[in-house]
Design a protein that fits this description.
This protein has four helices and 15 strands. It is of the alpha+beta class and 303 residues long. The chain folds into two domains: 2-32; 38-298, Jelly Rolls (Sandwich). It is globular, with a radius of gyration of 23 Å. The structure holds 2-acetamido-2-deoxy-beta-D-glucopyranose (NAG) (2 copies).
Length: 303
Amino acid sequence: MESKMVSPLKPTILLFIASLVAAAYLTSSEAADSKPSFEDNFDIMWSEDHFTTSEDGQIWHLSLDKETGCGFQTKQRYRFGWFSMKLKLVGGDSAGVVTAYYMCTENGAGPERDELDFEFLGNRSGQPYLIQTNVYKNGTGGREMRHMLWFDPTEDFHTYSILWNNHQIVFFVDKVPVRVFKNNGEENSFFPNEKPMYLFSSIWNADDWATRGGLEKTDWKKAPFVSSYKDFNVDACQWEDPYPACVSTTAKNWWDQYDAWHLSDDQKLDYAWVQRNLVIYDYCKDTERYPTLPWECSLSPWD
Ligand SMILES: *[C@@H]1O[C@H](CO)[C@@H](O)[C@H](O)[C@H]1NC(C)=O
Ligand SMILES: *[C@@H]1O[C@H](CO)[C@@H](O)[C@H](O)[C@H]1NC(C)=O
């Protein structure tokens, strides 16, 4: 019986069946590790009509025109962890345009917010983007650093990440630590570690300050300006009121463990290279602005 059933099948039919089986298998395995959709993780903050996605929904585009910019934020808040996203920035003449990727304890610029910022400052064609990072605690910022990048961030996607635990905040570009912000462990230090944060991305016009201190204005003839995002990756303690179990530092999570409290030897080499070659501005060196430097400037990033 069995052999009779099989034998009449022609090779072409067998192939057809094989491909059906393969297709079914692919579909189920894709479903099993299918990527989360935008809506799983994020909400649009403003101007839904300036937000588009690629056909498969995995690349997200924010656009800025004369009317408005656009932004999105995570649905969840987190306290401590690893936060990562790939960004491709507005190309060409983007003076005055700021693409931001940041974490903040609230949706707004409230007087008691904590915040960790990556801001990408656009420039005239052929002139390099700068990245600015900043840290806010309880509404106070002024902790800017500016770096050049070692690549053109408008040509390809690159990964921008933040490691945040109770010992340090590290800003990474493609796994290279470009900035280390340390906690000295004292209460009331300038280190955001109490409040959970959302993660945000946005694009807006900042031609009053962004490029050469506001001298370079946004050229609206070049609008719309579009920045693209993909591969959001969060490995963190998701906040639940009143206090999620993962916050009490049981050191179960790699981002809270000893190895994540300081740079590794390899990271130190990369960090030293960045410090030597790419730093344009460091508030800890700006004694005109800070005749008495903020206390955290005395903490060593090498510890
Ligand atoms: C945070 O800042 C507000 C003023 O903006 C102040 O009243 C409050 O005491 C500050 N909180 C802490 C913990 O420093
Ligand atoms: C724009 O490019 C010029 C020339 O390289 C540079 O001096 C300036 O700092 C850049 N400005 C920004 C905001 O990137």
